[in-house]
Amino acid sequence: MIKDVLSINNINSLILDDRKTEIEDKERIVKDIVLDVKTNGDKALFEYTKRFDGFDINKNNIKIGQQEFDEALNSISDKAKEIIGYAKERIEKFHEAAKQKSFFIEENGIILGNRITPVNSCGLYVPGGKAAYPSTALMTIVPAVVAGVNNIYIATPTQNGKANPYVLYAAYICGVENIYKIGGAQAVSAFAYSTESVKNVDVIAGPGNIYVALAKKLVFGDVAIDSIAGPSEIMIVADDSADIEFAANDLLSQAEHDEMAGCYFVGLDKNLTKAVMDRFFELAKTTKRKDITTISSKNAKFFYADSLEIAAKLVDMVAPEHLELQLNDPYMFMNMFNNAGAIFIGNYTPEPIGDYIAGPNHTLPTNHTARFASPLSTDVFMKKSSIIHYSKNAFLKSAKYASEFAELEGLYAHKHSIEVRFDKDR
Question: What fold does the segment set 24-225 form as a domain?
Answer without folding.
Answer: Rossmann fold (3.40.50)
